[in-house]
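TEACHING EXERCISE
Course module: macromolecular assemblies
Task: Read the component lines below, then compare them to the predicted structure of the full complex.
Student: A.B.
Group: 4
Components provided:
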Amino acid sequence: MGDRAFSGPLEPAGECRWRIPKSYKAGMRVDGLIYADEKLIAPIRGDNAPEQVANVATLPGIQKASLAMPDIHWGYGFPIGGVAAMDPAEGGVVSPGGVGYDINCGVRLMRSDLTVADVAPRLEPLLAEIFNTVPCGVGVGGKEVLAPSELRRVAREGARYVVRHGRGWDEDLDHTEAGGCLDGADPDAVSKRAAERGKNQVGSLGAGNHFLEIQAVDEVFDAATAEAFGMAVGGIAFMIHCGSRGYGHQICDDSLKTMRGAARKYGFDLPDQQLCCAPVSSDEGQAYLGAMRAAANYAWANRQALMDLVRQAVSRVFGRPAERLGLGLVYDVAHNIAKIETHEVDGRPRPLCVHRKGATRAFPAGHPEVPAAYRKVGQPVIIPGDMGRYSFLLVGLPPAMAETFGSVCHGAGRAMSRTEASRRVRGEQVRRDLAARGILALSRSWQGLAEEHSGAYKDVADVVAVVERAGLARRVCRLRPLGVIKG
Amino acid sequence: MGTFEVFDHTADIGLKVRGTNLADLLETAARATFGQMLRDLPADVEVIGEVRAATAGGIEDDPGELLVLWLQELLYRFETERLVPLTFTFGVVGPREACADVGFGRFDPRRHQARLEIKAVTYHGLDVHAEAGGAWSARFILDV
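Instructor-supplied answer key:
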């Protein structure tokens, strides 16, 4: 994290908006703009993450502003919670630091026709069945090892590959960002090392802050949109948070080596070497995008495979096929990604390279990329909280398109280091505390559970409140955890 | 044998490591890293293999790059073969290359408890330098 507080200017710039003027730092091409309220801006300033917002504003081709969501905290080069869009036609760059190691880390939400009354008496066996079905934990891979040719197909086809192999429904793809597959993935740009790491990890959850939860809708804020999304009070849903596993981590590792040299080659004077980058149109930029898309597609395949495993487990416990349990995919969003998207700048639509690092796409009603089933209401935006409190489902609004390239926050953000968290509480105690509140937790690592306890995270309700007050997205419903699985 | 301590970082894990020489630094950094990842280590060496890390070259030595490459190589062996480094016999150890025969145990998730998953060794805040008397120290952050 930043080791000192931000001492630069944070000028109030409207409801829940703070501007870092581009005069603050030499080289800033645009202002910085942070979305936060009075409560959140203090720890944001204390983390020094605004300095990183200012640094990102120096990158070539950046448009409108260097943006930061209310869950912003210190990252590597880019802040976590940062959004930056570059215009390739103006020499705009792509930066692996603007995506992160876990390429297409994201969240998937599956609804059901089950209610709390259905699940409560069977929560323990249901959670156990899912825990024993979904591979999770350090050093634990998926149930199969993919041949190199199949792994290449996964890289090109993403979630489509998994559905084509009978592990999903066609409508799952309609309800996944980008249809679960980015065009332009280039398996040839992926190293052998990344392929080795990824060949046996499709359909595995991993560990750390990745999780799988059984949740209940406990409050609806927007009844019409909730109905469109298939959500109602008392309804049971399943949330999966996971990414591209070792495949994506290695691709990021590989790309950083290339990009460090590229930044020198193109003569970029970077305030932080971790902003290493190359022009989108350059060989290095295209190679990174090709590999990054392969990793993004891998992550969507992974979450599709994980959801299929959950469907199977739930089906076994309730003795009915997944279709008859209404186990439909609400949506799947990425929150670490770079995509070429068309956005309006100075009155003209322009293709831009949009980096979202710990930020979620939030397109409004009417946007052609919103699934047909939701086009009248807008795109579902899934914002996970910590395992002891709640998560939220939001819907994208038009001001997000105008201001943030259709982007909002991605979660709560940590409030405490891992070492501090595990000093304060032990994993076994966390499990007992959760159980006392009616939340069952199963984990392969007690320390992992301790590091992820509620006190280690900010309150996601505070983060979501800012996004709503700023007009970027609107709360649809809140989901409370009943069962938690961590690796 | 070197020493290490964990320092606070909001989202990830920071390590400060000190070794009596460069080889000791690399060994201690490896032990510290795997100690963060695993609560239980395999008891016995099952496989001995060569681990080599070499920087890309350039005008100046870059011991930080060497440390990162060394740890990345060990993490790769863990992720692809579940190998945990237990013993180290260094051959070449220079500012641009390190080579060691490493005795590995095999991690079994059914028997060994893990702590956390390390996604990467980062360059963030990386600092590796020689100290007086031949000792070396390093500071690095693991992305978890």
